[in-house]
Design brief:
- It contains 17 helices and 35 strands.
- By secondary structure, the chain is an alpha+beta fold.
- Helix 3 crosses helix 9 and helix 6 packs across helix 7.
- The longest helix has 31 residues.
Amino acid sequence: MAYVIGVDVGGTFTDAVLDDDSGSVIAAKAPSTPPDYSQGVLDVLELLAEQLGRSVEEMLAETHHIAHGTTSSLNALVQRKVPEVGFLTTKGHRDSIFIMNVEGRYLGRSPHELQHVLAQDKDHYLLPKRHALEVTERMDRDGNVIVALDEDEVRAQVEKLRADGIRAIAVSLLWAFRNPAHERRIREIVAEIDADIYVALSSEVSPRIREFARNSTTIMSTQVGPGLRDYLTNLESALKQKGLGGPLLVMQSNGGAVAASEAPQQAISTVGSVLTGGVIGSTQLGQKLGHRNIISTDVGGTTFLVGLIVDGEPERDTTTVINHHPINVPTLKVHAIGSGGGAIAWVDAGGNLRIGPHSAQAVPGPACYDQGGTEPTNTDANLVLGILPTTGLLGGRKALNVERAREAIKTKVADPLGLSIEDAAAAIHAVQNAQTGDLLRKSVVEAGHDPRDFVLYAFGGSGPAFCAKYATHLGVDEVVVPLGPVASAFSAYGLAASDIALAQELSDPAQLPVDPVRAEKNFAQLEDQVRQGLDRQGLKFDHVEIVREVDMRYAMQLAEVTVGVSDGPLDENAMNEAAARFEQKYADLYGQGSGFSAAGIQAITYRVRGRGVLPFSPELPPLDQADGPAPSSGNRPVYLEIGQDFVDTPIYDYTALRAGHVITGPAVIEVPTTTVVVPEGRTGTVDELGNLHIVKNGA
């Protein structure tokens, strides 16, 4: 027997999915345990072992690998709870990270914020100026040494940082992506002075042109690298002590995993790791259900996440924005807002009801958890409205106190707005639906897609309670709630289903026509790095897939577009075909005629993505066929619409449902790890894998 385990560590709950090579799949959920999230991982593994009827040591001994998605890097950066780091750069270029290429005033800001120019600032700098130091050296644009590295000056600057307590240093020199020799020598000098200092090089973390983005990416990677290293080292050590037979892998933003021992050196690549598991899971399930256009929505305890699968492939991006800084990370495109089950409801100074972005998280949690929390959340509203059972969550293991929920809603929302507790709870429910609907429109419609061409997948602990409503906001006819054995742990299922994925990139700007020999040399170098990286993962692959890409742009225009490049030896025709794909994709994105081809086309950054396909991935087992109508477990009053009061609503126990059962709304389906609402006017049908398909009546 060989197991594969996916573990998704969220701000509120830690989910896990285990599958084996015989087609069995089980899932478990446990509260997250900040600040030591590793304890939550060990807790959820114990729950998996209990379901297997084995000890955790026996289970781990037969585990092929564990794929782990973590929020630690992203949360640390977003909340700016990172240690002080040092920064070394070429003399004369230190202030680039404070000037921020003008972008620091507008990147990551909402349209509303951008309208108030005088209120904008750049106080979100990455580190104080006393920790940003310069060294004498210079490369030219072709990587030739113009000024030799002053090694004595490097030693003096490193000692200055050490004296100020700095234990991690980011190194980003001008044109280092063309020749990394000086950066590598600085790392050697730091090791000679103090081998325990963490060092990140821009030529390894982000070998791309454009100074500000490369600097900010390297600095942020340095800020989270030591913490990620310590967390993964401790977790892997604890797992090995319990007998883990295979490696611990860490999910990356690009939708693939990497060995835990390698993740800290590319720490910034893990910032979106926990966001991508659901997109990968949706892609896998979509292949089984015949869906190629999918809106993947994951509503957990803290966040609401949206990703798109278009024509069977997840949408990708080459950059992201964190705290107003551009980050060079190949990533699956995922949009997020703080509107999960634990998002706090509050009334602003203007008397408007707001939801999030702050969350009650696992500690203290929603008021109804009765752990000291006093702020009302979406979860409290759902309990008051009768959507959640008063018997508690996680099959009754997580008790809920409805009186605490009512008290929190009354004090913080109902009384300030002059509403009854029930109407205030319904208002929280409605505002949450509106917020998620807005993000969906931004992610789908504003990206140029027609929602009617998509199926919406909804998962996470909170998503199934809202999904039919926010699908209606968007105009999507069919909703799929992945249930079966994975239920709210669907993101963990995506982690367990993920393969090993590595990416290497290199900027080498040139005007087309590019010398095919030069382009082939770049791709060959990157492919060699990717294959060597895959060899270091400690796993045997069924096969390896290699994808070549190049970022192109029109000369005198800023927007770069990524296009695929054919395999095999490159010739002039292959590069011309890539240029033609660029022009078509540019027109699709920005409109016909927006490009200026007469100015010429430039190839900017070359990229190779490698995917090591693992021998097996989770296969959801089939569900028994129904032999009669869906059995109801009773009725309870549920309040779903403002002004309609409570309606006596049928309640269904998911464990009693079988393939082919049809449930007409309004109805509530209780799953051990989530709750599904089928509103009036919609019908839910259980498919052969246990998933619930919710469609409009008559559709």
